[in-house]
Every structure is written in structure tokens, then in C-alpha cells.
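Per reviewer request, we include the raw input and output of the structure prediction for the construct analysed in the revised manuscript.
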Amino acid sequence: MHYAKPLARLVGELEKLPGIGPKSAQRLAFHLLRIPADEARQLAASIMDVKERIGVCSVCFNFTDQPVCDICRNDRRDRKVLCVVADPRDLLAMERTNEFTGLYHVLGGVISPMEGIGPEMLRMRELIERVQRDEVKEVILATNPTVEGDVTAMYVARLVKPFSVRVTKIAFGLPVGGDLDYADQATLIQALEGRREL
């Protein structure tokens, strides 16, 4: 395409976003050209604000703008039940069910030898420390039903079982290769209720 250089740069940057191909990037860029300058500045400021102010919770590693996230600070949560997820999007998907009342642990990804991600690159050590320190009674594994998700779940199960912890995995009504983030609320509720011992 023959874009002006600033427009070509914007299209190129938008294409780097997940799920955005060349046509979507072009559509977004042209939309941004049409919006008022104030709206464009607000969008840019929001992006910078997120980059500067959002970090991870020192307890569960969820995204937060505070040292400890709202979920970990909530005294009404069951501190003896820990739901292990790969990333914060999965935590949000579980929270949308309004069924889980325990705490979370965000691993920061899944074991994926093809991508060079081993267990030492995830928050496994911190998980073991929490299980011991907080005297956790049950660890619920809520990884996606993919090869990498299943390998990660099995690895975590082997890590925590020696601590006399009940280890369960949520049941799935999702197709293999599906993502928690795209699951509807009813499916996630059933998956949580139908979890099984590993």
C-alpha cells in the first residue's frame, strides 16, 4: 500500500497487536485519523498510563495498580483454596462466574518447550512457597485444555501433591485448543463445579 509515512508506521504498529491483520490494522488506522485529536490523545494517554502504573500483585501476580490486588486483600476469600491459572485473562474469566471464592496464583504462562518456556521461567517456586506458608488445602488447576496447558497442570500437580494438598482440575466443556478467556459464564461454572482429582 502507498501510505504516507506516519500512516504506514501506525498501520505497522497496529499489525503487531494480537489478532490484528493488515486489513484490520488499516481499518483501525483510518478510524484513528477520523476521530477528534482529543480522543486520540486520551487513547495514547490511557496506553501510557497502563504501561506506567500497572504491575503485578506481590501475592498472586495478577495485574494491579497496588502492591497487593483487591482479590488477595479481600478477607472474605477462602485462603485455603488456590486456583492456579496461566495468566490474568484466565483469572478474570474465572471471576466472571461469581462462583469461585478462593484465591488465585498466576503462573505467567504455560510450559512450552517449542517456545523455549520451561517450568523455571514460570512462578512455580512462588506457588510452592504459598502452598506451604498459607497451609493451602486444595489447589485447583485451571489451565487451558491444550497440550501445553495439560503438561503445565500435570507438572504443578506433581509439585504440590507432596504437601498433602488436594489437587483438582476444572472440568471442561470447551473444545480442545479453546481458551478460558472466550468461554461463556455457564460453561465456566460447570467446569468449576465438575472439577476432578488428579
